[in-house]
Design goal:
The protein is mostly beta strands. It has one domain: 3-layer Sandwich (Rieske Iron-sulfur Protein). The chain contains no helices and 10 strands. It has a 6-stranded antiparallel β-sheet, with no helix packed on it. A 4-stranded antiparallel β-sheet has the order 5-6-7-8, with no helix packed on it.
Length: 110
């Protein structure tokens, strides 16, 4: 993992919502599932769509791509529904004193 980067106040992303940020030219989607934050590369591994615009399912901790319906596990980045077969990269996210911080994964998605 890289260094921690301050993103925004955690309250800027309410539960059940997502936001897109760009760090060093890399689009990242940050999701708030009932107060737990997750971060993945914002680009679907199947068709280049923005995952931050997809449907968040906090019950299953997944996001559905808005283009073709692929779904991804927010904890692992693994696809949970076709047509995507490749995972998306997962990043660490933490809240410190009410502020979101993110550390980019240096590893490529498997």
């Amino acid at each position: 993992m890289s260094d921690w980067i301050t993103i925004a106040p955690a309250g800027d992303i309410p539960p059940g919502h997502a936001a897109r940020v760009e760090i060093d030219g890399v689009p990242i989607a940050i999701f708030n599932c009932d107060g737990t934050f997750y971060a993945v590369d914002d680009t679907c591994s199947h068709a280049e769509a923005s995952l931050s615009e997809g449907e968040l399912d906090c019950d299953f901790c997944t996001v559905e791509c808005p283009l073709h319906g692929s779904a991804f596990d927010l904890q692992t980045g693994e696809p949970t529904a076709l047509p995507a077969v490749l995972p998306v990269r997962v990043h660490q996210v933490q809240v410190v004193d009410g502020v979101l911080q993110l550390a980019l994964s240096e590893e490529e998605a498997a």
